[in-house]
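Quick one, tokens below:
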């Protein structure tokens, strides 16, 4: 009894992938135009194409817990931050948490350089310990460093710095044996934002700092550049891998499909105004890896089919290969998508945004493997290789068919070496055998008649020589 297996796509399905490619390429072009238009609109109206997190934009991001039952409109929080003088202040509620907000400001330290210089002058006037060298402090840093000739009293020094505007905690630093280093940890932006909001909205409004992150502007710019470089390096090495693993004509289709997937995912972040940060870059790299895996499976089936059907137009072979991998592609991507959907539905914060990026990338990546990578491969093969070798276009295949060649009937059993019907080959072999047998029979008759003349002549000679009785 023949075993039956579940197949999502019925055997014999022949969806016209190649003929329909132009419509899907047009759809991709529309999506990319929407992405570009959205980013342009965001830049003109919001000052940034994407909602860059502090990883890229720099600044401080503080997640605050409000008092239970304290219903504070988010607009009042924004107005309080603006009134306190924070640059580029914004605030949003956390949808997956109870009564929490996230405040984002461009400030990275609670003091500026002028205030730091004033604190240094105050320390120079400290009578119980003399500074050995100038203060060490970089604008935007969260720590100040002093080196004294004798040990200071930490509590007195902390009160002196607080009075001068450098509020923080004074601790013993590290240095040489004959030096007395001091390290001042400045009050972070989280504490300053909490203090300002409690002053504006009422004491006890903010009960806890859940998390606080600070990234300098220079570090943010460097991280942004490194994120772009990581994507470019990934695409470049994948191009080399596909070129060496398959053929140069396959590589452009794979890379264009990957760039297409990454760009549309970025466009989804621009459209939804979700925060774009280092986690998003990690998601894009994950999408690139997942998508090229799917594309390589499709390319491998195309190459296998082309090798088995050398006389078939490559467009038809590509259609057959894509239909054969369709069930596997949908089942694999669908299973992965279910896991990502569960993570997106149950996750919170950055995990939810990471799952959102993967969700878009999996859908777009599966689509591009079928409708973007393969048409580009066919175009490259036609434009730059002219159907060279066994990768033939429809026109090249038609031109190379021998007019005397009889093609096999549909569904006939075909010999892979010659591409002809096995029944036709057997009939020809039988005809040749029959013709050979007739030739040998005729030859045998001719030899017998020719040899038979000699015995007849000898018999006659013998009769003539027989003595008379």
């Amino acid at each position: 009894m023949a075993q039956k297996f579940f197949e999502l796509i019925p055997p014999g399905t022949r969806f016209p992938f190649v003929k329909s490619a132009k419509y899907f390429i047009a759809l991709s072009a529309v999506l990319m135009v929407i992405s570009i238009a959205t980013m342009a609109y965001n830049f003109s109206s919001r000052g940034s194409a994407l909602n860059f997190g502090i990883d890229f934009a720099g600044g401080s991001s503080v997640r605050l817990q409000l008092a239970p039952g304290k219903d504070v409109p988010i607009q009042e929080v924004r107005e309080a931050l603006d009134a306190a003088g924070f640059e580029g202040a914004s605030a949003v509620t956390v949808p997956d948490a109870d009564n929490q907000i996230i405040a984002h400001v461009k400030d990275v330290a609670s003091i500026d350089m002028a205030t730091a210089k004033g604190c240094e002058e105050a320390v120079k006037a400290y009578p119980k310990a003399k500074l050995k060298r100038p203060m060490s402090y970089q604008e935007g840093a969260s720590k100040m460093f002093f080196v004294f000739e004798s040990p200071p009293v930490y509590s007195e020094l902390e009160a002196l710095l607080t009075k001068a505007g450098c509020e923080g905690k004074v601790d013993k630093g590290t240095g040489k044996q004959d030096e007395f280093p001091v390290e001042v940890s400045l009050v972070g932006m989280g504490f300053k934002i909490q203090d300002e909001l409690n002053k504006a909205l009422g004491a006890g409004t903010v009960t806890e700092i859940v998390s606080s992150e600070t990234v300098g502007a220079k570090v943010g710019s460097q991280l942004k550049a490194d994120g772009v470089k990581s994507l470019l390096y990934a695409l470049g090495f994948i191009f080399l891998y596909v070129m060496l693993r398959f053929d140069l004509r396959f590589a452009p289709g794979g890379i264009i499909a990957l760039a297409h997937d990454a760009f549309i995912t970025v466009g989804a972040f621009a459209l939804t105004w979700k925060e774009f940060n280092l986690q998003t870059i990690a998601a894009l790299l994950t999408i690139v890896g997942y998508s090229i895996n799917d594309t390589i499976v499709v390319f491998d089936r195309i190459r296998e089919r082309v090798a088995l059907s050398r006389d078939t137009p490559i467009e038809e072979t590509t259609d057959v290969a894509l239909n054969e991998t369709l069930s596997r592609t949908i089942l694999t991507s669908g299973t992965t998508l279910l896991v990502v959907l569960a993570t997106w539905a149950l996750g919170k914060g950055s995990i939810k945004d990471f799952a959102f990026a993967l969700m878009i990338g999996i859908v777009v990546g599966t689509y591009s493997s079928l409708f973007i990578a393969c048409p580009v491969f066919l175009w490259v093969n036609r434009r730059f290789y002219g159907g060279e070798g066994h990768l033939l276009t429809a026109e090249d295949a038609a031109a190379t068919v021998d007019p005397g060649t009889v093609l096999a009937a549909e569904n006939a059993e075909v010999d892979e070496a010659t591409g002809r019907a096995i029944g036709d080959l057997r009939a020809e072999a039988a005809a040749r055998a029959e013709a050979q047998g007739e030739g040998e029979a005729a030859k045998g008759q001719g030899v017998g008649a020719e040899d038979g003349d000699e015995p007849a002549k000898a018999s006659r000679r013998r009769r003539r020589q027989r003595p008379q009785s």
